[in-house]
Amino acid sequence: MKRLLLILILTLSFQTLAKADGIKEFEIEGMSIGDSLLDFFSRDEIENNKTYEVEQKNNHSVARYYIRKNTNEYDFITISFKTNDKKYKIIEISGFLNLDFKKCKKKRNKINEELEPLFKKLRKQETGDVEHFLDKSTTVNHIAYWFKDDEYISLTCYDWSEKSGYDDQLRFEIYSVEYLKFLNTLS
After folding, report:
1. What angle do CA 30, 32, 36 make, to 5 degrees?
2. Does 122 have pLDDT greater than 80?
């Protein structure tokens, strides 16, 4: 039942997006790229709960805020923002489902079959199984749809290495150009 509901919600969300000019039209749990986190959480709550990923090392120009409770469709959600931005503008938002890598690809492919017709005008990228750009012992498999401004939405499966400490997962990722630039500083 949860799978059917997820497909329905994603299909309806992506239908709106397919008619839109960019990723700012797409929402996860009512939040989208460009929104202020302050519209959803207090400054203290954000500051007290922001995190930095191990892969960032000393680069703390972007922080993440995790939502691990009260999500309707996901096991958890991450939201990224620039640490020097007093408005806490969202530059990345992703919904996570913890799922075995093989099951993930099967589920992701079924969801993609429903969504693909809505993205006919966008450039599609499929990577197959490849090494994670920061953790070479982790495998990822992307299906991404690129917008004209080099922003993208992807359905990505992660087969995390044991050393990473992360669970395997399916992610619905929405990345702004700002977030992609940040990721490029990590490699």
Report:
1. 95
2. yes
